[in-house]
Amino acid sequence: MSQFETVISGVGGYLPERIVTNADLAKIVDTSDEWIRSRSGIVERRFAADDQATSNLATIAAQRALDDAGLKAGDVDLIIVATVTPDRTFPSSAVYVQAKLGAPPGIAYDLSAACAGFLYALSAAQNCIASGQVRHALVIGA
User: N or C: which end of the chain has fewer CB within 10 A?
Assistant: First the structure.
């Protein structure tokens, strides 16, 4: 058993401003609100602005999580961004988030595992904390 306790101390989120409804989609592709809703349960989705990259969205959510936890960017030792839509293949979106937050140099990487990515990222962060490698980890699903 590890001597280091792992807890989720803060959460944050962000949704882009632009709302696209099923009715909006039905205007550009052959579908309907009923067809989409009955098969997926989706009613609306959010589209990022043309000037918003994954790291922009992730940074806002991350700052909100840090605020909720009562932490500052300087407290973060590890940043993992679980995403299949990174800003670029290299460098990772996590590095951009690190810079945008003003976090010190440290471990920052993307984890690409589709729907399970956030859970894998939580597990990886927990392992780093439990081993004593890091004290505070920031895990972002974007």
Answer: N
